[in-house]
Amino acid sequence: MTELTDLTISESLAKLKTKEISPVELTQAYIKKMGENDKYNAYVTQTAEQALERAKKSEKRYADGTNRPLEGIALGIKDLFCTKDVRTTACSHIINNFVPPYESTVTQNLLDDGALFLGKLNLDEFAMGGSNETSCFGPVVNPWSKATKLVAGGSSGGSAAAVAAKMCAAATGTDTGGSIRQPAAFCGVTGIKPTYGRCSRYGIVAFASSLDQAGPICKDVTDCALLLNCMAGYDAKDSTSSKVAVPDFTSFIGQDIKGLKIGIPEEYRPDGLNPEVAAYWDKAAEILKAQGAEIVHISLPHTKYALPTYYVIAPAEASSNLARYDGVRYGNRVDGNGLDALYVNTRTAGFGKEVKRRILIGTYVLSAGYYDAYYLKAQKVRRLIKNDFDEAFKKCDVILTPTSPIEPFAIGDKKMLENPINMYLNDVFTVSVNLAGLPALSLPIGLSANGLPFGMQLIGKAFDEATIFKTAYQLERGAKFVRM
Ligand code: GLN
Questions:
Q1: Given 179, 200, 432, 442, the catalytic residue
Q2: Contacts for 15-18 with beta carbons within 8 Å, 24 or more apart?
Q3: Over pLDDT 70: what percentage of the chain?
Q4: Residue 450: which H helix or E strand, with range?
Q5: What residue owns the CA closest to ligand 1's atom 1?
Q6: Stated pTM of the model
């Protein structure tokens, strides 16, 4: 029997509108699931009472016909989005008592459209990581885990796990180098990182400002379109948010893809590529071809420089953004004898190992003498990576690649934890997109021999999420992936 929490947002809205189900009933079903699935450690703060209060108000709105686009839909919010009067931690010891007096623009947009929030979701500390193991609240457990506890991916691990385990109808995420797409792939759900500037960054704790972008993680492609409609839009409070008009993304769902050119980048298929990943990639191309799309082979020649470029630029920006947590202006304070000692004690106690590593790398590549050799060079290569995409998009409309080169691995995997480079290598298919500011979606394509989900990525031209949605919906229909 299907449970209420199995419904997608679009299915729920249809039943809410006909009053077959009520917002309170639906919200209670999600709250029950949150209790049952506590073992996954997806939520770091729960706001069930507040959610039920809002659900009651939504009930009135359905009764008097003033219901808004997401009326009564229960969401989880990555704990990187500031939520007014609700603790926001970035999963770091350094701000684990921060209660924002304001709401981020993206979450405000969702509230204005009638959504309600069940709580704040776990993530890698300051969104730095690919396995959700750097959180000060401990790792998120992938709901697909069998005997061994597996990572949910990161940094939006809590968001992806909560959606997979039906602990919310959908969740917000952020993506600096893959943090929406990779955990979505690991947990068998769908997520889109929109074009840089589509969603306001106002009120989102900053990691790397030129790369960070908010987006939804959902049960399916249609829900992603529905949610992005509400999240996106120009915001005067973020000077990098775009004035490009936001189309109704749901209008592209169901459109056919006849004649659409799908680009397959040769550089994304190195010799050692996991054969299961390669096979699913071929299968995805076949599905799209069967629906009338044309497969074209493209080249993104600077792909091999994407990871080193990202791991210079992202830490550089992070070291600058995180300078504010000094125990004076922001963050928890650990006193010391004099100002220097106060800084050292505060930051030593407040930041975890990975965050410290990024600050060290970032300050190094920005320092006099090294700035030209690392940071400036990385910025130049970033442009070349963007140019590769511009060239490729002369030949195709959308690009198809795997999301991750591997399947979810065990929590505490020594190979990943002892050598951070191994962890960084998992971002090989996702970081280029952020460096170029492009939109990209990940959707589940099938299961590995171990019964774990694999994701496929569709990359679009800037501000052309429309083509991604159109293609993703057809791929979803063809893949027939069975949700958890
Ligand atoms: N795994 C990448 C990193 O650690 C991406 C993180 C993100 O997108 N926030 O930087």
A1: 179
A2: 16/62, 16/67, 16/71, 16/72, 17/62, 17/67
A3: 100
A4: none
A5: 130
A6: 0.98
